[in-house]
Design a protein that fits this description.
Elements lengths: L9 H4 L4 H11 L14 E6 L11 H14 L3 E6 L13 H16 L5 E6 L4 H10 L5 E5 L6 E3 L2 E3 L4 H10 L5 H11 L11 H11 L15 H20 L3 H4 L2 H14 L4 H13 L5 H8 L16 H6 L2 H9 L15 H5 L24 E5 L2 E7 L10 E9 L2 H7 L12 E4 L20 H5 L6 E4 L11 E6 L16 E5 L4 E4 L3 H10 L10 H9 L26
Parallel strand pairs: 1-2, 1-3, 3-4, 9-10, 10-11, 11-12
Antiparallel strand pairs: 5-6, 7-8, 8-12, 9-13, 13-14
Helix pairs in contact: 3-9, 4-5, 5-12, 8-11, 11-12, 11-13
Bound molecules: FE2/S2 (inorganic) cluster (FES).
FE2/S2 (inorganic) cluster binds next to loops.
Length: 574
């Protein structure tokens, strides 16, 4: 911080208005803070997403204490505050519905209070993008403390990762010997320690994203939650944020367009979740960086897959850490990254990762010997998705990457559930499953249902994959030839709304094409008689969300939240 720049918190504690200084200081004094806490110490807000209802973040209460240690050591004044926490496996109908609400909570909590710097304590899927979006709209010096993945699970001698419950459910369906007691045993084996999902699902993708953006201390994101080094890094982050305030190292100095491009490249290199597209776009929108859907294809689609992690590979996050973790990936990807971008420790990407060592080459590969030659996201265009849709080719079936098949249409998720296993359903292995009504406005909240299960009768015939198309999302632990994020969504009258049973659909991933083989005249006719579905809510936050949420290609933020308002508060409370 330049000598002349005053701390933001001094507007509360040491302004020209002595009466207000008194009010602001006095009530805080009931916590026993001595005089010198209000005389020029940077006040650091610890934004905590801890909640009993967000088990992946259940340890962040202890982590906050460790962060406080670091802040105090560096001469700062720590102030922990709660924000809305989003538990992925618990909340209904989907945490995505509340990501923007949690971001508003974070943004306003930061701006309204006497804070000079921010530590974001994150973990479960949406707790990272929501808090970061909010922090971006205020633009103070900010550092992220990612909560870390769980240790690897083990069930009857076999290593299991988060999401493995799915195969257990399938096993139960086909094997009645798998009892309820077996399920209970499996549950605890699966979630064996504190932390978030232990595959390269959405939470690990988000942690990877923040480190690739330059927002964590180098090497922090891949450390398991239960590892003592996680706490050590949390303490060091507490120390560092105090320095960042002194250096005035705000988010806007780190989150440049180059940083976003680095995050896209890194996501491809680790085989990260398609959910990154939505969240990174929304974060960029808050920073005023014009990130388009096409950028994910331009910068990410030709990147080799370097990590052998589930769901694309075979290892888990604990193995990843022992192999050297993200620092090795970033070192190996460095020829493809912007090397000169500044990160929270004040040095560049290149400098931070140049000495990383790989200890297990089957887990982290090199550019010369990748797991797959091309990972990343393909962005599709065509009359079925005028504003785009996405597919993760590395998770799809090669024989379906160019495919023409007749549509089998489900108008809603409930319609899908009621008919998918109907023995009379007219569907075969070449059909294209079309699911409507699961977009941002339609569901509402764009749930992770795009990778719907295939019909039981086709599974019995040995069919393992089919083309599925929807305006929804897909879990970071899922796979298949699944076209997601179709925009505009069906509920606002996108072409997806007009698809009928038996229409022919062409998917051509190499040429980035998704085409509904129906004439323009017929589509115009169908559009004229199309009736928009009734909104799913008439009041409250959900109505606000439906009225204002943007389409998937724009990050599904609320239109009035895009951009930022800075940290200045013009008026006082008295
Ligand atoms: Fe929280 Fe997977 S459920 S990270």
């Amino acid at each position: 911080m330049s000598e002349k720049k005053k701390l933001r918190s001094s507007e509360w504690f040491n302004s020209d208005n002595k009466k207000m200084n008194f009010v602001h200081r006095s009530w805080l004094r009931n916590q026993g803070y001595p005089d010198d806490y209000f005389e020029g110490k940077p006040v650091i807000g610890i934004c905590n997403t801890w909640s009993d209802l967000t088990p992946c973040n259940g340890h962040l209460r202890q982590f906050a204490e460790v962060v406080k240690r670091g802040i105090l050591e560096a001469g700062g004044f720590p102030m922990e505050f709660p924000v809305m926490s989003l538990g992925e496996t618990i909340m209904k109908p989907t945490t995505m519905l509340f990501r923007n609400l949690a971001s508003m909570d974070t943004e306003e909590s930061i701006r309204a209070n006497p804070l000079d710097g921010i530590v974001l304590l994150t973990g479960c899927d949406k707790t990272t993008p929501s808090t970061l979006m909010g922090a971006c709209s205020v633009d103070l010096p900010t550092i992220v403390v990612p909560g870390g993945p769980m240790l690897s699970g083990r069930f009857r001698g076999e290593k299991i990762g988060s999401g493995s419950m799915n195969w257990m459910v399938k096993e139960k369906q086909s094997n009645e010997a798998f009892t309820d007691a077996d399920f209970r045993e499996a549950e605890v084996c699966l979630a064996r320690s504190i932390g978030h999902c232990n595959t390269m699902g959405t939470a690990s993708t988000m942690a990877t994203m923040v480190e690739a953006l330059g927002l964590t201390l180098p090497g922090f994101s891949s450390i398991p939650a239960a590892d003592s080094r996680k706490k050590m890094y949390a303490q060091l982050s507490g120390r560092r944020i105090v320095e960042m305030v002194k250096e005035d190292l705000t988010l806007s100095k780190i989150l440049t367009r180059k940083a976003f491009e680095n995050a896209i490249v890194t996501n491809s290199g680790v085989g990260g979740s398609t959910n990154l597209i939505i969240h990174l776009t929304a974060i960029a929108g808050r920073m005023g960086v014009d990130l388009k859907l096409e950028d994910f294809d331009i910068h990410g689609s030709k990147i080799p897959l370097l990590v052998n992690l589930k769901p694309s590979g075979k290892y888990l996050m604990e193995d990843f850490y022992y192999a050297g973790g993200l620092p090795v990936v970033l070192k190996n990807l460095m020829p493809l990254l912007h090397k000169d971008v500044i990160t929270v420790n004040g040095t560049t990407m290149a400098e931070n990762y140049k000495d990383a060592i790989c200890y297990e080459e089957d887990v982290i590969r090199t550019l010369d010997d990748p797991l797959k030659n091309e990972a990343g996201i393909a962005v599709l265009k065509g009359n079925l998705c005028e504003n785009g849709s996405v597919i993760k080719p590395s998770a799809a079936s090669l024989h379906l990457m160019k495919h023409r098949g007749k549509a089998v249409v489900f108008e809603t998720m409930e319609d899908y559930h009621s008919r998918i296993d109907d023995p009379d359903l007219d569907i075969d292995k070449d059909s294209v499953i079309v699911l409507k009504g699961v977009g941002p406005k339609g569901y509402p909240g764009m749930p992770e249902v795009g990778n719907v299960d295939l019909p039981e009768k086709l599974i019995r015939q040995g069919v393992k994959d089919m083309v599925r198309i929807s305006d929804g999302r897909m879990s970071g632990t899922a796979g298949g030839t699944v076209v997601l994020h179709v925009s505009p969504e069906s509920t606002v009258g996108g072409t997806l709304a007009l698809v009928e049973n038996g229409d022919m659909i062409e998917l051509d991933v190499e040429n980035r094409k998704l085409h509904l083989d129906v004439s323009d005249e017929e589509l115009v006719r169908r559009k004229k008689v199309w009736v928009a579905p009734e909104p799913m809510a008439k009041r409250g936050y959900v109505k606000l969300y439906i009225d204002h949420v943007e389409q998937a290609d724009k990050g599904a933020d609320l239109d009035f939240l895009v951009g930022g308002s800075g940290s200045k508060v013009e008026r006082d409370s008295h």
